[in-house]
Amino acid sequence: MNSIWRMVAVAGLCASAASGAGRKDPERAGSMPMPHEGRYVQAIERLDRNPVLVVRYPWFRHRKPSVEVRQLFDDEVGERLIYPLYFRQRHFRGDVIVTLYRAVDRAETGPTVARFTSQGIQFEALATRNSLGKAAASVACRTDVVSLERKRQTPRAVYPLLEPWALDERMLYLDLPRSHFAAPCKLRLWLMRDGDIVWAENVDWPGYPQRPGEGAAEAGSKPSQPAAEGAEGGNAP
């Protein structure tokens, strides 16, 4: 079994090196799309009143597809130059690949959390059975948003392995990590093809319903955990 994981890690390193060779930095390419509104993504309520993001788009057509999500502050909603983490291109390699697959394996018997650091950003791999009843993993983190006036933190979620989140080849059901997205907010969602943005869309997130005994302040509070080392300067990752 250990030899299998080593083979996965080596394959990830080779693929990452090949995909990154000779490519321009996406942030310098001037190709950031204007986000859609209500075109592909919708937040719906399940029978248990928990929300889920539904993406209606043929994601399977793209090579190495993934989804990234970031909370928007009120003054960012109309801003085009807000960047994803480009997680599949920059972070999904070597030990990170092994960590994700092991977390999914453990989720067959119960929820699991695996923490790792990549390029100075502290991530959590959160694996459990999702709304579709499949063992699946998302990756969550918080990054700084730095402006002239202040420094704020925003939560992010990444879905680098989309198959377990797929109802079929044209529909994804994404559970956002409650630990990072408990409160209502505005989100930006990117559909990614390896290191490229296919499209971006803003969507209203209703937040999770309060659990019994959960205080209103806890359920509706904004992120306030210590800053991750990967900060955004002028909305750069």
Structure description:
This protein is of the alpha+beta class. The protein has one domain (2-19, 44-233). Helices cover 17% and strands 37% of the residues. It has 4 helices and 13 strands. The protein has helices at residues 2-20, 87-90, 94-106, 216-220, and strands at 36-37, 41-45, 51-56, 65-72, 112-118, 121-129, 135-146, 151-159, 166-168, 171-174, 185-193, 196-205, 231-233. The strands form 2 sheets. Strands 1, 4, 5, 6, 7, 8, 11, 12 and 13 form a 9-stranded mixed sheet that branches. A 4-stranded antiparallel sheet has the order 2-3-10-9, with no helix packed on it. Helix 1 (2-20) crosses helix 3.
Q: Tell me about the largest β-sheet.
A: 9 strands, mixed
**Number of distinct helices:** 4
Number of domains: 1
Output the structural class: alpha+beta
Which percent band covers the strand fraction?
35-45%
- Binned, the helix content reads 10-25%
Number of strands: 13
Rough outline: globular
Mean pLDDT across the residues is: 82
Give the end-to-end Cα distance, rounded to a whole number of Å: 35 Å
Q: What is the helix/strand order?
A: HEEEEHHEEEEEEEEHE
Catalogue the unreliable spans.
1-29, 216-237
Keywords:
17% helix, 237 residues, disordered C terminus, four-stranded antiparallel beta sheet
Summarize the model shown.
By secondary structure, the chain is of the alpha+beta class. Helices cover 17% and strands 37% of the residues.
Structural topology:
Elements: H1 2-20, E1 36-37, E2 41-45, E3 51-56, E4 65-72, H2 87-90, H3 94-106, E5 112-118, E6 121-129, E7 135-146, E8 151-159, E9 166-168, E10 171-174, E11 185-193, E12 196-205, H4 216-220, E13 231-233
Parallel strand pairs: 1-12, 7-13
Antiparallel strand pairs: 2-3, 3-10, 4-8, 4-11, 5-6, 6-7, 7-8, 9-10, 11-12
